[in-house]
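User: Predict the complex.
Assistant: Input components as received:
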Amino acid sequence: MTLTLPQQSKPPSLQPTGWLRYLSFSVDHKVIGLQYLVCGFAFYLIGGALAGAIRTELTSPVADFMPRDVYNQVLTLHGTVMIFLWIVPVVNGAFGNYLIPFYVGARDMAFPRLNAVAFWLIPPAGLLLITSYFITGAAQSGWTAYPPLSLTTPATGQIIWILSVLLLGGSSIFGGINFIATILKLRRPGLKLMQLPMYCWAMLGTSILVVLSTPVLAGTLILLSFDIVAHTGFFNPGMGGNVVVYQHLFWFYSHPAVYIMVLPAFGLVSEILPIHCRKPLFGYTTMVYSIMAIVVLGLVVWAHHMFTSGTPPWMRLFFTIATAFIAVPTGIKFFNWIATLWGGKISLNSAILFSCGFIVNFVLGGITGVALAQVPFDVHVHDTYFVVAHFHYIVYGGSVFVIFASVYHWFPKVTGRMLDENLGRFHFLLTFIGFNLCFAPQHWLGLNGMPRRVAEYDPQFAFVNQISSVGALLMALSTLPFLWNVIASARSGEIAGDNPWRALTPEWLTTSPPPVENWKGEPPLVTHPYGYGIPADQIDLKDASGSDLWSNGR
Amino acid sequence: MILVLGGLWIGQNINLLPVDASVNAPIYDELFRVLFSIGTILFVGIVGLVVFSLVRFRRKAGQIGDGIALEGNLPLEIFWTAVPAIVVLFVGLFSYDIYERMGGMVPLGHGGHGDSQATEERVWGGIGTAGAMQASSEMLVPPLPVEVTAMQFAFLFHYPEGDIISGELHVPSGRPISLKMEAKDVIHAFWVPEFRLKQDIIPGQPTLLNFTPTRPGRYPVVCAELCGPYHGGMRSTVVVESADDYDAWFQANRKLPVSEA
């Protein structure tokens, strides 16, 4: 008896293939990661244009570039877009989705459909936010939306802002649940927690923060929308409400949000540095514990945003100490990175330059952060340009520099082609100079009396503001070589091969770009993701200099 | 060592702040110099290490080998956990001391001037020279009470002794001032950079702020909390003048006879 099986032709796919899959409800974690990245970058350009509008307004001390209420809409949109549509989705969603399944040895995330839902909440939320500007006028009360201002400014824009942030918060929570489940439950058999690449730990810590604190923001914003729509009095002092309660609830999310933006960046840097220094990551165990310490401390420091809000003295004291102590685990991470650089064979490529730019900028932001934690210091500079400078050093000098470093590092994996290194170094130089020119003078502005969120200011600050605006222009221009580099290299860059960096982490142990389901055959078991370097007793004495030996204690 | 000395020198000699014009401003500046010195030392040191590593350990043309397989060093980790912890602890204690000297630790509701209202409604205190002021109010000069009303987009200053309403805050130099502040609509903040003082004025919560101006001059009063479209234009002036000049201004503007204090 013969059984003739019908010739198996390629089954028609329910999912589109080719470039169309990037516009589809794809459940492939790599596609979703890229969707996050490209979508986030589009919003980065919008947020950057808004920043450009702000810096243009501030080139002169009078409000002459745009109407004052439009200025407040622009600064509200700038903050919201950059935080909720660029940094949070990209450092978490984009790199998290792309890398975490590789790192745990899985073929996809734990909940692929939830993952796609989480991404597809972002474009509508973003469009809602942006179009509110054109249709009704956007929210005018800053990204913090403090009542009673947010209750008295035009209601439609504020409600759309709340809806949009709720959608984005939902997306963030879905993503967080997915990362926790993937890291804890989808690890390849045999892979222990303490063998995971550092980015997994960073994402685990971040996701815990997301899941614990984002619902608080959601609840707060729902109460705020009740106040606006239904005229309830939760935060309305005219009806017996309390505006300081809103600030507590808001910052209970929004301070951890800072760690949601920088912890993944810490993780990404920990992946990039060892590969390009050809050395193991220094102090793996302390890095893990310091991430977890930051998570715990990050939840109990929120009131340092409210030192001038009439908080009781004991509370000020507690939050000063808690805040200042975050510097300790953060400092451990920075010293470990420097120790990773020390004695390496560092390739001075764009990924390393951006990573080291991050270290320099973040250290300055961290030092001003410890200063701001001190109540008497903060009382003078709270709500001034000093604070603006401080947090841009954290989120731009920190997170955004790391995003660029990561793009230079993982571009060969994603596209199979190399980026142009000369353009990359030029991009770094322009960004680094522009960034510091833009934000370093703002420290002085804040100390000397320029409050934040103003469209007009004391004419004595005009010159320093113009310097800052020139820096902003350089930052805007620095995007051009980057964009050109990415587009041109994706089409005709040098072929990278599967593992151009000779890396050991699992995402490099497959083809570039990787196949659907990540590996042909069994996922590799990587128990030493940072096993670079020559053991100290095998160093070629002729090649090593005296200090190499000295740093080994020989 | 050079680094530490250089940092100290920079911290002590480069002045980034505007002039000091109140009793707590020099105390503040002391804290600022300490923070600035420590910050400079740390920043220059860390940047120096990064730059040195990048130059010294860069991959030279033709090199293909790896670095040293150095996975960690426990004594070193303990060292750089302990040092920042000690620095942070020192800064924390020092700023606590500064804070106390500014009067920040005085319990709320006691910073006032014996106002009977203070016991009835909840009064929110700001940082201020409340402690020092209370001592002085018992012995020397009674503090000058001024009622501040903040609204979109102006400050109004009302002097209960004399029933003066003014758009500018006139205060005599050397005498403690006690502001009782109230916001009519949204949150505002009262900030005088030269006094190194800022306090949010929160609707529904009368707030006290005490200070003693020292240096005659005209200084800006700035609203520091986003309060609407004209937030940037919400400014006023505090005029610190000698006691005689202040008396002249007071006599010229008062509407009520003042009982001798």
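Residues 2-55+77-102 of chain B form one domain.
Let me know if you want any component modeled separately.
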